[in-house]
Amino acid sequence: MIILPEAFAKNMKLILGDEFQDFEKALQSEVPISIRINPAKSLENLQLDIDSDVPWSHFGNYLKSRPVFTLDPSFHAGAYYVQEASSMFLEEVFRQTAPQKESLRVLDLCGAPGGKSTHLASLLTENDLLVSNEVIKSRLGVLKENLQKWGFSNVIVSNQDPETFADLEGFFDVVVVDAPCSGEGLFRKDPNAMSEWSENHVQMCSARQKRILSAAAMLVAPGGVLIYSTCTYNPYENQENAAWLCRTLDFDPVKLTLNPEWKVAEKGGGYQFFPHKTRGEGFFISAFRNLSNDRRYAKARINLNHLSRELTEVVKPWIKATKVDNYEFYKKEDGNIVAIKASLLSDFGSVMKALNRRSSGLEIGIFKGKDFIPSHAFALSDLINPDLDAVELNRDNALKFLKKEAFEMPQEANDGWLVMQYSGLNLGWVKKIGGRVNNYLPTEWRIRMEIE
């Protein structure tokens, strides 16, 4: 049973009035389980017990019960992301507020673990750019892993403080700030969050959020949108910060048109989810239009060496035929080969010049002599040639592959590089040489739990 902190309960009674008992009762109920599918992956044989759609997302589904996601190879292939349903409302906000233009530039400033970034990637076209940033270095690994599983090549991952984006002032059409917060909306999902809650912590979070918003606001292009969200209820982190942003900077709140059946509460220029009204956890989101005309970023060229013509010809057969002529290939100082869409070279150049701790395109592999060794990220990406040799594994063998254990390889499998698949979804690479099979799944990605 969840026993709310006394001060928190008092605050919520002021916010909810007569609805507080319904709210308190909802916190004792079972947490809804929801996933968001990846529209870029094959989903024909997805084996999940779907209950119903998440109404504010084209990609969201509630499940009837929580499976062991670790034991589903489709999860490791990036077929879906396990995400709380309320936070998928970002999709509706984005659809209603993002500028209607070609080649959007989008920044997710507080990206880890990747829920918002993978969602944004699904909403963008291949001509748009997504920069996914995470300040805390220890959280960068999970962000990279989730974005690599999602498989899009138009993404840059960075590890920067918001203030270090100053050279990209006015660069982004959409900036998303899913801010670190006091976590009040997670009390049902994560009761441990209550032990960290205090009124002082709320005030500390509110002040930190203002600093992040100040830095984020400078990055929004004229006419662009700043989307701000938290997983909390109190007005200090939500409505008051929204009002502060409009009062202090040249932004106006954007009013959304919502389906009343969703029962999303409009609160002080933002939109609040309560667990007794919607099938999800506590969540707040608001959007603001930039009214200023400042745009001071500098265009820049890609500061990487082009891959030689000879080696480019080696790489091309690995790339999807419909995409290969639209990409340029570069060699990094560490030898890794990256692919960047030609139409995005200028945008990639600007970001790469402004930020020093960031990725620089989709790493597709590395040459050892004249031998090309493909990367794991490439196996899961939208660039891989679907006609490459592949081996379909059953569930047991797919899990063994994902544990980096010995598994059964069909006798008729060719020698050389092979893509391991489950239900048509790419899992990673092996290299077969006669009777020997080398598993190239990154060790840090392997399944560690015991499987009976």
What would your notes on this structure say?
Helix content is 25%, strand content 25%. It is of the alpha+beta class. The protein folds into three domains: 85-290, 3-Layer(aba) Sandwich (Rossmann fold); 298-385, no CATH class; 389-452, Archaeosine Trna-guanine Transglycosylase, Chain: A, domain 4 (Roll), CATH 2.30.130.60. The strands form four sheets. Strands 5, 6, 7, 8, 9, 10, 11, 12 and 13 form a nine-stranded mixed β-sheet that branches. Strands 14-15-16-17-18 form a five-stranded antiparallel β-sheet. The protein has a four-stranded antiparallel β-sheet with strand order 2-3-1-4, with helices on one face. The radius of gyration is 23 Å and the shape is globular.
